[in-house]
Design a protein that fits this description.
There is one protein chain. Helix 3 packs across helix 4. 30% of the residues lie in helices and 22% in strands. The protein is built from eleven helices and 13 strands. By secondary structure, it is an alpha/beta fold. The strands form two sheets. The protein has an eight-stranded mixed β-sheet with strand order 11-10-9-8-7-6-12-13, sandwiched between helices. The protein folds into two domains: 130 residues, HAD superfamily/HAD-like (Rossmann fold); 230 residues, Aminopeptidase (3-Layer(aba) Sandwich), CATH 3.40.630.
Length: 380
């Protein structure tokens, strides 16, 4: 088993004589021990996803999980008669996790060996260690955020959303209109800073600089009137996505410098990143300032580069940039935009702060501009 302390993002359980005591093909009843039940609940509360890889009949096994009262804790289950390594790989692919973020627990040494042979980065545990898992460092995140505690529910909502998308016969834009999407952009609070820091760590494909801002650095900026630390959340009729974006802006008289833009790849299909940039351009146009975005190319953030390009940001000279100090990180490009008023989105409603006045009420932009709900009701 690797010594790498990388946190486990998903634990995959075998069922017979692992999650429960007994074999459902041979016994009328199986037993879920209190220790294993506590481990399932404890891992879920830490934001660690759990799944199942079991050689059994699906309906029989799943009905037993329901009878034991734990079926709701498992996402992307694989129950059938194929090799366990294939099941584990399918689960990892469905959840978009690298093998090193996966753990597998099984009572059979041969099954663990088969998984280890085909997926050497997956950490494998014998069934007798089930009760110990919550005490191991790889299953113990330093901080559990509100989004972390709701991670399973968010993945389950995502699965229902994807099922609905697969069944929808019309264009993607028409499907998005049916979701009742609400994008909320709010000033971060002390309680939300940990969520913001987590986003800068977890988001690589849509992180415009690849820079990680520490908890302490972000907190210091909350009290700085020249900076805006904004957290972005997204909800639709299937449930909340949690925090999906962060914007860090330093405001100068002629220009707003976007020092950090990071959005989750979970919301790419919704177009939230594009809408976020359009909202920012519209706000800057209303304030009569230019925008300059910091961008540093990494081997992972091509999507962020394309998003800025589609929004009209370019490497170009403008006198407004003289107001901005040099970037502290090497390799940072400054992308400039002279903003103009933007058309409101047609697939979602935006509830946002007014960047021109910290004391002003939030604005509503998009589908429900006539709606009088404020951003105070954001699901954060």
């Amino acid at each position: 088993m690797p010594n790498d302390p990388t946190l486990v993002k998903c634990l995959i359980w075998d069922l017979d004589n692992t999650l429960w005591q007994g074999t459902i093909a041979e016994q009328d009843e199986v037993v879920l021990s209190d220790a294993v039940r506590a481990a399932i609940i404890g891992l879920d509360e830490r934001g660690i996803l759990q799944s199942v890889a079991s050689r059994n009949d699906f309906d029989h096994a799943w009905s037993r999980l329901e009878k034991l009262g734990v079926a709701e804790y498992f996402v992307a289950p694989r129950i059938g008669w194929s090799a366990k390594s294939g099941m584990v790989r399918q689960i990892a692919d469905e959840l978009a996790f690298a093998p090193k973020a996966i753990a597998f627990i099984d009572d059979m040494p041969a099954e663990r060996a088969e998984v280890s042979h085909h997926l050497p980065e997956v950490r494998c545990y014998p069934a007798e260690r089930a009760a110990e898992l919550t005490g191991l460092p790889e299953f113990t995140p330093k901080v559990v955020t509100a989004d972390g505690r709701r991670r399973r529910q968010m993945y389950q909502a995502a699965a229902r959303r994807e099922d609905a998308r697969a069944e929808f016969a019309g264009p993607d834009e028409d499907f998005l209109r049916t979701l009742g999407i609400v994008l909320r952009i709010a000033r971060a609070t002390d309680e939300e800073i940990t969520r913001v820091e987590e986003l800068t760590l977890r988001t690589s494909q849509m992180n415009a600089t690849g820079v990680h801002y520490s908890d302490a650095a972000l907190r210091s900026l909350l009290a700085d009137e020249s900076h805006e630390v904004l957290v972005v959340t997204l909800d639709d009729k299937f449930g909340g996505y949690g925090a999906v974006g962060v914007l860090l802006i330093e405001k100068f008289e002629p220009v707003w410098n976007v020092k950090l833009l990071a959005t989750s790849c979970r919301v790419v299909f919704s177009g939230a990143g594009s809408v976020l940039l359009r909202w920012l351009a519209d706000a800057a146009a209303g304030a009569g300032v230019h925008l300059v975005a910091d961008f540093r190319k990494t081997d992972r953030n091509r999507m962020a580069e394309v998003a800025y390009s589609f929004a009209g940001f370019r490497v170009e000279d403008c006198g407004c940039q003289a107001a901005i100090p040099p970037a502290p990180e090497a390799g940072v490009e400054r992308l400039h935009l002279t903003p103009v008023a933007q058309e409101a989105p047609v697939t979602m409603t935006v509830h946002a702060v007014d960047l021109r006045d910290a004391a002003a009420e939030g604005i509503v932009w998009g589908l429900a501009q006539g709606d009088d709900r404020g951003i105070d009701g954001a699901d954060s």
